[in-house]
Batch of 2 targets.
Target 1
Amino acid sequence: MSVTVGESQLRDFARSLLEHTGGIVDWPHDQRTGLVLAPVEVARCLGQTDESFRVALSGTEGDLSLDLGGEFLDRAACTLATYVPAQGAFALPGLNVKKSEFARTVEQAFGWQNARCQVCQGNAMLIVYHTWWFHVALRSDDVWESLLAVTINCDGQTVCRMDGLLEAMEQRPVPGLSRAPDTTIRTAATCAQEQVLQDARTFLDRMDNRVERDRQRLRDYYRALLREAATPSRRVKTVPGPEELAARQRAVKLELQRKLAELAERFAIDGLLRPVALAEFHVPGVVIDVRIQRKAAKREFRLYWNAVQKRIEPMQCSRCGRGSYNLWFTNETVEPVCNACHDQADTGGGSSRAGDGEKLA
Ligand SMILES: [Zn+2]
């Protein structure tokens, strides 16, 4: 039996889906079945028990049938959404970037708390950003869902705001990402997690209130039961002995504990943060090299001025990883430290990420 155009498209789609998710497909063009070796989680997502399975066009026997009427499309959609983050790279048309006055821009934007800054040079070039979109779902007794976008300056490793960049500018697609997704995913995911806790505050408070209300109801109910268990019943003739009364009370207490545990389980929050898409933007700007002097020590840093948004990006704190315009520097190693981390170091608190233990003078 020959292969129709529709079937051949379906086969190309399946092949590209499998290859994008790390699978290997051996399927000669004139054959109606092929052999696949796929990562076990991808195979499972496609309804297979084994990493190796036979894939077949409709009406031919195989483990996975490419049948438009069957479950193949649902399973393929799920595999796509789970294992193939959408990626794209775009460049904005070259703006005429003026290099003049960037020294003044640096001075105006930054506060150098215990160091001197000398602006060395500025070069107009494309700054690379990654914008990640995350699907967020919090599941408890109820569900909260959202789609979050986080933008990272790839080389500065700081979180930036890119309001309206996607819509406002004329972009042209460029082939491939110039920075690997794993260079920014961690920073982006950390920022997204913090954002979720803020965005979902009302939902989380509501869950807290509900669980507290139900807990109180359970306690009231079982307290009444306990009182009842402690008093001899008037309806029955025989009066229970103290041991039996104690046993009844124990049973009521155990039951209350079981119900409270059930309640805690029902309201436990199951969180999901899944990257769904990544776009890389090449934005015209000025890369500014500065030299920071802290006592006798000197170190060079790179700052980024975004010409589209007419804004200079913050510098990354070496301790918490957050971007900041107000910086302290350590002696000798000249590590940038934000105000919050500096205050913590002062008060003896320690949440240092770099953790080199060097004291700020
Ligand atoms: Zn910090």
Target 2
Amino acid sequence: MKKTTAVLLVAVLAIVLGSAAVATMDMQKDMNAKYPTAKAKCASCHVKAMAKKGDAEVNAFGKDMMKFVIDPKAEKKTFDWAKLEPLDSDGDGKSNLDEFKAGTNPGVK
Ligand SMILES: [Ca+2]
């Protein structure tokens, strides 16, 4: 019985951790669909490239993205890109849109 409980717990953890990673991958896909030149990757929004659950600290651009979530209760997050584009999240003098076009990271100077 204990072994069954352990297996079940591992399965539940895998689903929970996996769904967080899938959510992030969906955001990345959406960003790349809208801005193909941005070449969005994990480090576009996160401090660590391969962020794990509980260690998914976001950079300045990731923080700005969270300010412009259209429906915070929606399972799949969408963002108000029109409000994100003119910002200079990382403070390097280039707008997020200019960084998307140039393929540079909008969250790191
Ligand atoms: Ca910038």
